[in-house]
Design a protein that fits this description.
six-stranded parallel beta sheet, eight-stranded mixed beta sheet, about 600 residues, alpha/beta
Length: about 600
């Protein structure tokens, strides 16, 4: 017995040493990569005269470019997914508009992963670039509908002769897991407020409820109408003709795309390059001068550093929860602290609160709301909504002076819910595990045990708490939007709206971009000359790594192994870490 234990501990020790060594090597390589990245990050690519700006959006598009040492790590057998911030994409396009060295843009749209509100920001920037008289050429072997939304801004759209343009209309699909839970013997016990608060439906139904189908049909139709109108205006096609093309699935080949006016011609890559050289009067035996958007650094006026007055842009990105959060999760402590900073900074004269969030913890949302309300009493606060600012994401926006959204932003979802799993069937019947306990009071084990159903009294307590939080939520919105609680309740009930619909029902004030919101904040603050400052501060790659190396490494490996399926893993993980009453979107929307 002694020898058996001895060898077991020796084996465990050796295994631990090997794993630690491997992790140490990986972390060491990452730190070196981060140091190299930090040293080279500010080096801009050389831009020659008579150049093209090459825009390739196959990267993951985030709100801001967050330096990531993992992107610089080159380990055989491992690949990384690079990310690029919307802020730098827009800055690059704007800079290229006034850069005499850049004559046009080459849109390389092999893959585009952003949602429609983010694409709207990029699309608007491309149209503004075109207003300078410079040209845009789009090319792809096959356009997705998201890619085509951007491509439609181009002077010329070319497609590979064997490729096509996907133009079939928009769809949104939801997975329902009630059948799986039933097989496992797990019952999800739901308390909620809101006819349309469908966050819980995947747990308790096997298809959409009538109310949920109504709201999805409504906001998806609104986004599709805007998509059709924008594409039609750029391509000089009527909305009816575009709907006919989509409804009949008339575009299946590159020839179809040209026939119906979605593309201007078919080209192989070499033919495209030859045409671009002709456009720039470059000899065919010479190379094109092109600079990648990811490497392009527009020149910044040198006198900006001397400007004292500032407009602060505070970014809140991800699900809302307590604590510090991170680059892709809104921690109530961290964001509240940043809002206090700008409130106390005399140089900051106005604030733009950029929100891209499906919501989360109702309590954490209220903590952030409080800081926004205090800030608004001292300085102008303008909210700029990204792809989504719904439920808790709308909660934290409600106290602002004004709210800007894109027509295809997902917002609203003013509702509250709680879900308590009852795993008695799984534990008792499937696994043969039973529990017994001693308690000192009737409610001593309330919410701590998941091996039994809620009693009628416990469910009533939860329902009253959900009702109370919903009442607070609609009061916050009513006060911020100068509406009655009855009016808010009528457009609340958990219902999701597009930005265009939210403008009509009073939940937002203007349709516009982040730049529009910044301009509005400056006007309200009475500023003509100002500097932009952003919060929270972006850490350099090494600081970011050392601040949470274990989590970053685990995420890096998970993304590497799961690829596109990582999003589903992340949804499950976020669901499991939910605590308390939630104010969040029904589920993750993926419109395609």
């Amino acid at each position: 017995m002694f020898m058996k234990s001895f060898f077991k501990y020796v084996l465990a020790t050796v295994t631990g040493i090997v794993i630690s060594f491997i992790l140490l090597v990986v972390v060491g390589l990452i730190i070196i990569g981060g140091m190299i990245s930090s040293m080279t990050a500010d080096k801009a690519a050389t831009v020659a005269d008579n150049s093209l700006l090459h825009i390739d959006l196959r990267h993951q598009i985030t709100e801001r470019t967050i330096p990531d040492p993992f992107e610089e790590l080159d380990v055989p057998g491992f690949t990384t997914t690079k990310s690029f911030g919307l802020n730098d994409i827009l800055k690059g396009i704007e800079g290229a508009k006034d850069d005499d060295r850049i004559k046009g843009i080459y849109l390389d749209l092999s893959a585009v992963s952003a949602s429609f509100a983010t694409l709207q920001e990029i699309r608007d920037a491309l149209l503004d670039f075109k207003s300078s008289g410079k040209f845009i050429v789009a090319y792809s072997e096959g356009y997705t509908q998201r890619a085509y939304y951007l491509a439609s801004t181009a002077n010329k759209i070319y497609v590979n002769p064997e490729g096509t343009v996907d133009f079939r209309g928009l769809a949104s699909q939801t997975p329902f897991i009630k059948g799986t839970l039933d097989k496992l013997g797990i019952e999800m016990q739901v308390v909620k407020v809101g006819t349309f608060k469908s966050a819980v439906e995947p747990f308790i139904l096997d298809r959409m409820s009538d109310a949920n189908r109504e709201q999805v049909t409504s906001f998806l139709g609104s986004i599709y109408n805007h998509f059709i109108d924008q594409v039609g205006a750029s391509r000089h096609l009527t909305a009816d003709s575009l709907r006919t093309i989509a409804d009949g699935f008339l575009v299946k080949t590159a020839d179809d795309a040209v026939t119906y006016g979605l593309a201007d011609g078919k080209r192989y890559k070499d033919e495209l390059l030859a045409e671009l050289k002709d456009s720039l009067a470059i000899d065919q035996d010479k190379d094109l001068n092109a600079v990648a958007l990811t490497k392009y650094k527009p020149s910044v006026p040198s006198n900006r550093a001397s400007v004292r007055d500032r407009i602060a842009v505070v970014y809140a990105v991800g699900e809302i929860g307590p604590g510090e959060g991170g680059d892709d999760m809104i921690g109530s402590e961290r964001i509240s602290r940043e809002l206090r900073k700008v409130r106390r900074d005399d140089k900051v004269k106005g604030v733009v609160f950029r929100i891209n969030s499906p919501g989360g913890s109702a309590l954490a949302s209220d903590v952030i709301w409080r800081e926004v309300d205090l800030l608004r009493k001292e300085k102008p606060v303008i909210v700029s909504m990204g792809d989504v600012a719904a439920s808790g994401g709308y909660y934290i926006a409600a106290a602002a002076d004004s709210i800007f959204a894109q027509p295809n932003t997902i917002t609203g979802s003013i509702g509250v819910f709680g879900v308590i799993p009852n795993m008695q069937g799984l534990m008792n019947d499937k696994l043969g595990i039973t529990f017994d306990e001693v308690k000192t009071g009737k409610y001593a084990d309330f919410l701590s045990n998941v091996d039994r159903p809620l009693t009628a009294d416990e469910r009533n307590i939860l329902q009253m708490e959900v009702n109370r939080i919903y009442d607070t939520f609609i009061q916050r919105v009513a006060d911020g939007r100068h509406l009655s609680k009855g009016q808010v309740d009528s457009i609340g009930q958990g219902r999701v709206w597009s930005g265009e619909q939210a403008l009509a029902n009073g939940l937002v004030d203007r349709l516009g971009s982040l730049d529009d919101a910044i301009a509005a904040a400056a006007r309200k603050a009475g500023l003509e000359d100002y500097r932009l400052v952003t919060y929270p501060a972006i850490k350099n790659p090494l600081e970011s790594l050392l601040g949470g190396s274990t989590d970053r490494i685990s995420v890096w490996f998970a993304k590497r192994e799961l690829g596109e399926q990582y999003a589903y893993y992340e949804q499950v993980k976020n669901t499991l870490r939910q605590r308390g009453i939630q104010a969040r979107l029904p589920y993750a929307f993926d419109i395609h």
